[in-house]
Amino acid sequence: GQQVMQIPQYQHVQEGEDFTTYCNSSTTLSNIQWYKQRPGGHPVFLIQLVKSGEVKKQKRLTFQFGEAKKNSSLHITATQTTDVGTYFCAGILRSGAGSYQLTFGKGTKLSVIP
Amino acid sequence: DGGITQSPKYLFRKEGQNVTLSCEQNLNHDAMYWYRQDPGQGLRLIYYSQIVNDFQKGDIAEGYSVSREKKESFPLTVTSAQKNPTAFYLCATRTEGNTIYFGEGSWLTVV
Predict the structure, then answer these.
(1) Which residues of A12-35 are buried (b: 16+ CB within 10 A; e: fewer)?
(2) Which residues of chain A does B42 touch, with a Cβ-Cβ cutoff of 8 Å?
(3) Distance from CA of B42 to the nearest CA of A (A)
(4) Smallest Cα distance from B84 to chain A, Å
(5) What confidence score (pLDDT) does residue B32 get?
């Protein structure tokens, strides 16, 4: 079945440093999504990437979808303490037969040291 | 106010008991999901439903059961057959644009 690997599992950074988390899929994806879960909270949708090679930005966050649509990354510039949480990617695979499969990566837990 | 309501937020279960977690949504979404999250771990799919009166097993369905009699409701029963049920349970819906919305979750502890 479809697998989505996410690395690293944990990342500790000094406030102001950059942070990147990577997702790799075993199959070519239709779309990829990113979610953020604050400590004690529930995952919240951040963004969806659809096109090969797509790059989207949200303030200090930059999301990329690989040319082959099998990998993606989330980069945070100059981290702040408000960035603390776990970031999940979710790969979506749709088939012509109407099937839909969504697979979450295991997440990257980001800690920011003030 | 539109959204997903999960209840109870905290639940304690004695060994051998069945418990049911409620999930109600007023977003008019067809697809609903139940995920389990263990501390520091990712999301594992228990069951999902694409439409009323239909549901499918996810990756870790053993020891759980669901029903989908109404579009708004997708309750999850954790049965006594689930040997390690202590976890954070998340209900979710999916929009036509594939965005997943999560409820605030229910913490289940076996005592």
Answers:
(1) eeeeeeebebbbbbeeebbbbbbb
(2) 6, 88, 104-107
(3) 4
(4) 20
(5) 96
Residue type, B66: V
CB-side exposure of A38: number of CA atoms within 13 Å? 6
A48:B98 CB<8 A: yes
* Residue B26 pLDDT: 96
Hey, what are B30's tokens? 């067809």
Q: State whether A33 and B99 contact (CB < 8 Å).
A: yes
pLDDT digits (tens, 9 = 90+) for A38-85: 999 999 999 999 999 999 999 999 999 999 999 999 999 999 999 999
How far is it, in rounded angstroms, from Cα B6 to Cα B106?
A: 7
pLDDT above 70 (res A98): no
Contact by Cβ (8 Å): B101, B35: no
Interface contact A106-B102, CB threshold 8 A: no
Q: Name residue A91's beta-bridge partners.
A: A32, A103
Give every CB contact of residue B41 below 8 A, 6+ residues apart in sequence.
A106, A107
Q: Is the peptide bond before B8 cis (omega within 30 degrees of 0)?
A: yes
Q: Residue A106: phi, psi to the nearest 5?
A: -80, -5
Least Cα distance to B32 among B60, B63, B4 occurs for B4
Residue of B nearest to A85 (CA): B40
Which stretches of chain B sit within 8 Å of chain A by CB? 35, 40-43, 50, 90, 94, 97-105
Q: Which two structure tokens, joined as six digits, stand for B69?
A: 């009699």
Q: Could you tell me which chain A residue has the CA closest to the CA of B99? A: A45
